Amino acid sequence: MSHEELLKRITVDPDVMVGQPCIRGMRITVQHILETLGMGATPEELLEDLPVLEPEDIRAAFFYAAEVLDETPVFAVTDKVTDASLT
Predict the structure, then answer these.
(1) What DSSP assignment string belongs to the chain?
(2) Per-residue pLDDT at 72
(3) What span, in angstroms and rounded, lies between the C-alpha atoms of 47 and 23?
(4) Which CATH class is domain 3-71?
(5) Which residues of 68-81 are buried (b: 16+ CB within 10 A; e: fewer)?
(6) What is the pTM (predicted TM-score) of this model?
């Protein structure tokens, strides 16, 4: 499945989950998929818990997140205090 086909699985509709990116118009958000996997669930467990999901939906969520991060500026944050900042 191409990157374009994967991204078509992600929908944004203000009437579904307040416009959060969702899988194929369903009330399953990209964030939910990523958080569930990040907390240690396996893709197989996620597919078992949400039988409407397909393996390509999980791939699409990862690809969508990567695309968003690629477009998001990242700024280095430091907690160092310099003498100049104390004046």
Answers:
(1) --HHHHHHTEE--TTSGGG--EETTSS-BHHHHHHHHHTT--HHHHHHHSTT--HHHHHHHHHHHHHHHHHS----------GGGG-
(2) 73
(3) 13
(4) mainly alpha
(5) eeeeeeeeeeeeee
(6) 0.80
